[in-house]
């Protein structure tokens, strides 16, 4: 079992391998994390782990009434995640490699990272200025019929795009824009389809690529059917990920 200890960045969203993650970092615990990452030599990866929050708040209350008017200030690396932060997070996450870590004049950071490898959360340490975690790297197994399933998912994904775009063909991605490697297809589609966090988390932790693709095929058909009955649904940019508040 290959394990690694990395800084931990919990979010209210799921990061997939190969997907870009923009972050606007303003909380002191995560600013401390970024200052530490900046000490990494430029030729080495600046890595941290992203896990989706199961029970807790991405942004901890910093002043009375922020962000919830009924809350009081909370401090420390585990603020907002309870007495045992490990229980607040989903157990499978993704390593992020920060290609850009830019400090602003006010001490906040603009970060652009990319998901690389899935990991399983083994333990969380809240003794430092920010959370760190012991993580087990997870291999990506292909599973049976992954290639054929990827082709079916791509066809279903194009139909999904078409329905979201109001059947305007010019707004669709062409075949050349989409990958054909099964695991890449599975992660791209998982990130692009508008699904809730628990569903995206289920896709991230699928036991293999084929299982993820089978699940996505069912989801795409279901979502496309729903959209078909809602013709007034506006078009959506499928590959744009909103910047996290933190």
Descriptive account of the structure:
The chain has 5 helices and 6 strands; from the N terminus they run ββαββββαααα. It has helices at 28-37, 146-164, 182-192, 197-204, 209-228, and strands at residues 3-11, 20-25, 47-52, 92-103, 109-125, 132-137. Strand 5 and strand 6 (132-137) form a beta hairpin. The longest helix is centred in the last third of the chain and has 20 residues, at 209-228. Residues 167-176 and 233-243 have low confidence and may be disordered.
The main sheet comes to: 5 strands, mixed, barrel
Radius of gyration, rounded?
19 Å
Overall geometry comes to: globular
Strand content: 15-25%
Strand order of the largest sheet: 1-3-4-5-6
Mean pLDDT: 85
Strand tally, please?
Answer: 6
Q: Distance N terminus to C terminus?
A: 32 Å
